[in-house]
Structure formats: C-alpha cells, structure tokens
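I have been asked to look over a protein record a colleague put together. This is what I was given:
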Amino acid sequence: MTVTSIVSSDAVVPRLYPPRRAVVSWIFFDWAAQPYFTLITTFVFAPYFATQIAPNAADGQALWGFATAAAGIVIALLSPVLGAIADATGRRKPWIAAFGAMLVVGASLMWIGAPHHQELIAPLLGSYVLATIGVEFATVFNNAMMPTLVPPERIGRLSGTGWATGYIGGILSLILVLGFLAADTGSGRTLFGLTPLFGLDPVLHEGDRISGPLTGIWFVVFVLPMFLFTPDYPARHRLGVALREGLSELKETLRGLPERPSTLIFLIANMIYTDGLISLYAFGGIYAAGIFGWNTIQLGTFGIILAIAGTFGGWIGGKLDDAFGSKRVIAGTMTLLLLAIIAILLVNTDSIVFIPVTPPQPGGALFASSAERAYLVLGCVIGACGAPLQAASRSLLVRMAPRDRVAQYFGLFALTGKVTSFTGPLLIGVVTSITASQKAGMAVLVLFFLVGLVLLARVKVQINGVVPA
C-alpha cells in the first residue's frame, strides 16, 4: 500500500494507493482487450469478411465500414452519458463486466461466418457492432479507475505501461493465430509451416474464424486479475438516483466547458489528431499493398514489427510522460508522426527522397529492396509514436479532469475520439478518387497533425481542473 499526500487549501491529506498487485492486475485489462483490435478489426477477421464472405472485396470493405460507423455513433452518443452515470454510482467494475460480456458474446459469434454464406452478413455485422460497443465502453470505465491506483506523478508511467502491455498481448495473439491456427488454403500450412491445431479446416477458413472465440476467451482469462485484485470505487448511489444525478452533472459539465478553455481545446485537439492516427493505421497497410504489392503474410509481418515498435514506444513514452509532462510527449510524438508521413510520401518503389534505388524484384525476399526497408523504418517510427501519443493523451486527461467526474470526462474523451472518426477515411477516399493517387490521399493526414499541434499549443496543463499558478 502506497501512501502519498495531497495538499489542499486547509491541510495535507494522506491518500492511500493499492499495492503493486492491484496495479499490475489493472494493466492486464489492456492485454485482455487488445487482441480484439489486432485480430478482429485489423489483421484477421476484417480482411476475411471482406474477401471471403461479402460478395466482393469492395462491398465487404463498404459493409464493414458502415458497421464501424454505426458502432462509432452509438459509442459517441452514449459515452458521456454512461460516464456521468458511472461517476454518480461510484463503481466501475459492474460496467466493465457488462460491456465485457458484450465483447465476449459478439466476438464469439463470429465463428459462424463460414465462407461464401452471404446470408450471414447481417448477423456477423451485428455481432461486430455489439463487440465493438462492448470493448470501447469497457475501456472507458477501465480508464476511469486510473486516479485511484497511483500518485499523480506516476500516471504517465501507468498509462504507457498499460498501452505497451496491450501491444504485447496483440502481438502474441497474432502470432498464435497466424503461426498455429490459420493456414493457407492452398498449402494447408500456417505461417510457421505447421498443420493447424485442433484440426481446423483451412478450406472452411476455420483458422480465421477462430479469431473471434479466441478473442472472447482471451479477454475472460486475462481480465480476471483486475476483477479479483484491483479495488473499485466505493458505491455512491443506486442506479435510478445515479441516472438523474449523472445526467444533471453531465449537463453542468457541458455548460461549463467553455469556462475551462484548456480542457475544451484539448478535447478538440484529441478529436483531430486521433482521426489522423486512426486513418494512418487504417490506410498504412493498404498504401503499402498498393505501392509495393505486399501480400497477407508480408502485411502481417509488417504489423507484428510495428506492434513491437509500439510496445517499446508506449513503455518509454510513459517514462517520458512522468519526466517531462504529457503535453510535451503528445507534441513530440505528433511532430515525429508528421515528419514520418512526409517522408513516406517521398518513398517510391524506385526512389527514396528523389534518390534512385533498385525497385523490388518479383518473388524477392521479404523487405529486400531499399524502398521497402525505408517504409519499414518509417512504419516503426509511426508504431513507436502512436502508442505514447494515445497513452499520454489518456494520462493528460486524468491529470486535468476533476476527480469526482473522471469517468464522465473519459466519456467525453471517447466522444471526441469517435464523433468525427469517419472524417479522415472520407477525406482520404475523396482525394484519392479525385486525383487517382494514393500519395495525394495520404497527404491529407499532414493537415490533421498540423492542426492538432496548433491546438495543443494553446492548452494550459491543468491538474484536476486547476491551472497551476
């Protein structure tokens, strides 16, 4: 049990923090939840749905996008409300359990997605929406537990370590699926050259489909330590009273945001640079596939390497957060991301920053050409910066939000992260369509990080709603 002191206007008030076991158990939530994003939304099930279940890849991408937008709208609208209610009830774990159950059920149902059965499209997309809402809301309430776990000066390290731990979980889950479960339909072998475990049939894509139930089982197993060993907030009000009080406090918070300009500007800045980061992640693989012709194995390997870079970035970023402040980490990582995007736009198959190089050879070794290696290095920069950018944003909000409304502010945080999440992909799509150039489409992302940096410069760092003198 850690004891620290909080200076108030009247006296020094001691505050007790839980033991290390409780903190480590909380960190494992990120480990438990990350495979959903790695396996379902990025590398395994989403591409499988688009190419093997939907009528064609274009329709599959569009349908998946519509489902993602539907989940995002629900999350954006309800996050602040549920956060306010959670603050009023006090407890976080019941909410995490309820929404975690939605994640487990929705993800597990994805097993039914046999290839070429288009009648399953609607139930599969419904399962995806259910699971996405579940994991996002569970994350909101898990984030809101942070202020009770460590002293304020260690919030950055806690957030960064959680993010890095989540990346490791995502890497291991991806290696498990690609290396031992999902096999090529032609060879019948996995990435490691093995026959799939449990007799999974490559022709029926059971290795791809098992990513859904695996995600659900993984979450249940690894979220248990948080429920067992991490203390919750004490109960305050019953649900009916909490509903009225929470909505009343939310209205008061929204009315008062203009009186707290730094918090308001930060939330807007987070909305813009998060859109840019999500779009960068979403289109980085597509861009590489278009420029270099990378296949699934190459893209999967690229993703694993980026996740490893993100693991180290999140861990180091947490230390820098506590040492230099969340705002500086956010500004520094955004600057590096901006430079990396500009550099990527100057990488072609036959040149790097206008310097001629030998283009990739058909059937050549993985990342054999100079242009591919340059893209890989720049991708690692993006991976290493993306994790601390998100972790530092989370810890900055913890430091700025009033202690009695942390979940409510994380609801607003989730709102700003989702309400315009369609903007980046839409602009990339429009510009790419008009110009017929992938580079022109990706160049749009420069604006997101530039605007984010400009807005961040106007944020005065507050500690629990108070601007230091």
